[in-house]
Amino acid sequence: MDISINGAKILYTFTDVPLFGTIHITQTLVMSWIVLLIVTGLCIWLGHGLQVENVSRRQAVAELLVTKLVEFVRGNMGSEFDKYIPLVGALFATSIVSNLMGLVGMWSPTADLSTELGWALVVFVLITYYKLKSSGLVGYLKGFLDPIFLFAPLNVISEFATPVSMACRHFGNILSGTVISALIYAALAAASYALLGALGANLVVAAMVLLAGILFSVLGRSKKQTFPKILGAVLLVLGVLALLTKLTGGLAGQFPWLDIGIPALASLYFDWFSGCIQAFIFCTLTTIFIKQAAGDP
Amino acid sequence: MSAIYQSLVTIDPITLICTICNLFIQIFLFKHFLFDKVMAVLDARRKAAEAELTEARNARTDAETMKAEYEQNMADAKAQANAIVAAAQKTATARSEELIGEARSQAAQIKQKAEEDIAQERKKAVNDLKNEIGGIAMDIASKVVEREIREEDHRDLIDEFIRNVGDAS
Asked: Lowest CB count within 10 Å: A9, A106, A255, B86, which one?
């Protein structure tokens, strides 16, 4: 079995475009537009028909989200950076929706380094703008010679490391989720074929597994113990599948049965937890870096 | 046709530029459709609450003013009532005293008149008696003297007699 983990699929290619040459329309581009539409749709849905009194449940959610966002930005940056609240909100919403795209089997735009690098560059421009603003051009350039001129190369590297690390952190986490998901699916499919191939080869073995499953199920139910119940259920399902495989002449064994349900447990961490936490980390770093660059007001 | 993929880790300039543009579009849309609206509502609510608070404070001040006014009015009314009662009492006392005085003077007048009447009656009675006694005395004397006594001749005598009778009575 071969597992291939690729980048974004190229859906269409424009050749000989003036100025740009070749343009690839990738999954990342299409999905990022879809994410844009989803987030905007959510914003419109949450933000329409707001009232001062008689607050609906939808409006309560909208107010909660915006209030939390404002609290988050003010908590990290103080209230003089209120104009960056929409930036942080848009980044967070786009990031989290992009990350969760993977859950429904679609391509995450955040599984493409270009996406995160784009965001990180915006943040980098803001950081540099505030550094220049707070210490002036001379002060900013002098900062590279800190503490002595020998450190200049290191300081330049560390300056560019900020956006690169931000982009790579986010990308790496989402990519690792994608990679591990692919591995888990492949491994479980292989395990499924092997197991059903072995069990379904012989009618007696299949029947015995089914019988053992029934036995453990009854035992677990009568003694009210959890372990025999689970074991019984697993053996029961395996027995049924093995019988099916035998009776269909190996056809049912071709389906990767173990890929049903089990990868959801891994997805709980890699898609849900990692997806949410990376969006949060990216926004936190954005606010903190801008605040740091602006220095003490 | 087999699918063509980008390599796993790559930077595509077009995607990069599009992502940045998308981010700015998203910022604008987020701000326009959700953030500004929610903030406006929150602001309106805060202002409404503040207005209500101010209104309540004003109403309370008004009520306190009204209460003070009312209390002042009540106190005034009470004082006025007291003054009226006091004045009435004074008037009544004065009137009763006047009436009593009048009655007393009337009584005194009546008494005086009665006394005068009595004195007059008495005088009259005395005079009548005198005359009668004079007549009687004349009759008796004439009987005694056996002759006509002329009153004008013996006036002095009769008067003296009567005086003596009067003193004796």
From this structure: B86
Name every chain B residue with its beta carbon within 8 A of the beta carbon of A175: 8-9
CA distance B53 to chain A (A): 16
Measured between CA atoms, the residue of chain B closest to residue A41 is B33
Residue with tokens 């009447």: B117
- In whole angstroms, give the CA distance from residue A88 to residue A97: 14
Separation in Å, CA of A89 to nearest CA in chain B: 8
Query: pTM of this prediction?
Result: 0.70
Confidence check: pLDDT of A1 > 60: no
Contact yes or no for A251/A243 (Cβ under 8 A)? no
Q: For chain B, what percent of residues have pLDDT higher than 70?
A: 91
CB contact under 8 Å between B18 and A39, yes or no, is no
Count interface pairs A-B at CB distance under 8 A: 145
Per the CB < 8 Å rule, is A63 touching B20? Answer: no
Average pLDDT value for chain A: 86
Identify the residue among A29, A83, A112, A175 best suited for mutation to test binding to B, counting B beta carbons within 10 A and taking the highest: A112
Are A262 and A188 in contact, with CB atoms under 8 Å apart? yes
Separation CA A17–CA B13 (nearest Å): 14
pLDDT tens for each residue of B101-160: 999 999 999 999 999 999 999 898 888 888 888 888 778 877 777 666 666 667 777 777
Is the ipTM higher than 0.95? The answer is no
Amino acid identity at A200: G
What integer is the mean pLDDT of B65-88? 95
Distance CA A170, CA A286 (A): 12
Q: Judge: B25–A36 Cβ closer than 8 Å, yes or no.
A: yes
User: What is the predicted pLDDT for the residue at A277?
Assistant: 93
Strand partners, A21: A17
Residue B7 and residue A32: Cβ atoms within 8 Å? no
